[in-house]
Design goal:
With 112 residues, this protein is an alpha+beta fold. It contains 3 helices and 8 strands. The protein has a single domain, classed as Protein of unknown function DUF952 (ADP-ribosylation fold), CATH 3.20.170. The strands form 3 sheets. It has a 3-stranded antiparallel beta sheet. A 3-stranded antiparallel beta sheet has the order 3-6-5. A two-stranded antiparallel sheet has the order 2-7. The protein starts with a strand and ends in a 12-residue tail after the last strand.
Length: 112
Amino acid sequence: MSPHRLFHLVPEAGWRGTGEAYAPDSLRTEGFVHLSTAAQVAGTAGRFFADVDDLLVLHVEVPTDDPHLRWEPAEGPRGTDDFPHYHRALPRHYVVATSRWRSGADRLGRES
């Protein structure tokens, strides 16, 4: 089966120096790493990162059988939606690419 292609938004400074696993503050405070689908990432960027100039998009491929990936309802820009959450530090090798977010210029899917 193909892995899930998901996305994580992070200011560049938060990604620099990541070792074998990426553990953002949300892992400690909420118990998971926030991820978005291609259809969700533009809305997430607009809602939570509107004033961040150095925003990166991590392109994440999570194996379909990874038990730490859970789809959970959360309040998003379009109301309640099922968002992917990774309940452990994200293995660095799951991040297959990074790109800069430029206010939707690099569209990854339908904007909300």
